[in-house]
Specification:
Elements (H helix, E strand, L loop, with lengths): L15 H25 L5 E5 L9 H15 L3 E4 L5 H10 L5 E6 L13 E5 L2 H10 L1 E6 L4 H15 L8 E4 L1 H16 L12 E4 L2 H12 L8 H8 L2
Parallel strand pairs: 1-2, 1-5, 2-3, 3-4, 5-6, 6-7
Helix pairs in contact: 1-4, 2-3, 2-7
Length: 240
């Protein structure tokens, strides 16, 4: 059997300048986390809202997101979105018209995302993973409207974190059940049936159709415990 020569070199050596540049990027990442923590730590309670960036103001899902965000805002919840167009804009617009802060976690993309104008607090991120932490860390609930890959990514993220105990359990609400029925049916027929997840994992999600139902489910979740994280939950969030 042939043996690897002892003087075999790495086929892709890392240039010293490249390594130095990657190391310095750590400080940029740290700056994003620090600004996010400082700006959002006092925003409590808050609800993160997700959905398609491709929908205009005349679309029923846009209008539903706007109504939901307005009701959440008037009920005392800061509303957090991705800061862009579509459902993100609708969420910020509804919250902006309400009593509580409207927050946008904007991301810089190769094709520049244009931030919507309905943001009381506007943060800008280069790195998706730093932005993802901000969506989770201060959220009392996730509200997920119909959307594409990015929406599914955020949904899978919070489900994984709650399932594995890396964050505390919060309401995860899917709006417009008919949009999600196929996905949930596949989870039952494939993932649960083949032992990839437990049937109780599906209970992490709730379906809502109307804004008031969303608000009622969130308040019901916190009725017996309040919105402040427990000492144990604070410890978990430190390791998020």
């Amino acid at each position: 059997m042939p043996k690897r020569s002892s003087n075999t070199r790495s086929p892709h050596p890392v240039a010293e300048g490249q390594l130095s540049g990657e190391s310095w990027r750590i400080f940029q990442i740290m700056a994003e986390f620090v600004e996010g923590f400082e700006r959002l730590a006092q925003i409590c309670p808050s609800v993160s809202i997700f959905g398609s960036a491709r929908l205009g103001p005349d679309h029923p899902y846009y209008q539903l997101a706007e109504r939901t965000a307005r009701l959440l805002s008037d009920s005392g919840f800061a509303v957090v979105s991705g800061g862009g167009p579509g459902i993100m804009e609708a969420a910020n617009k509804g919250a902006f018209a309400g009593k509580s802060p409207s927050i946008g976690l904007n991301i810089q993309l190769p094709q520049e995302q244009i931030g919507n104008p309905y943001q009381d607090i506007s943060l800008h991120f280069r790195h998706f993973f730093a932005r993802k932490v901000m969506f989770v860390k201060y959220a009392a609930a996730y509200v997920v409207l119909p959307g594409g890959f990015g929406t599914l990514d955020e949904l899978a993220e919070i489900l994984t974190l709650v399932q594995t105990g890396k964050t505390h359990r919060i309401p995860i609400i899917l709006m417009q059940g008919r949009f999600w029925d196929g996905l949930l049916a596949w989870m039952r027929s494939a993932q649960v049936a083949e032992g990839m997840i437990d049937s109780k994992d599906l209970d992490l999600m709730q379906i809502c159709e109307e804004p008031q139902e969303v608000v009622d489910k969130i308040f019901a979740h916190y009725e017996s415990r309040g919105f402040e994280p427990s000492p144990r939950e604070r410890e978990i969030l430190l390791e998020l």
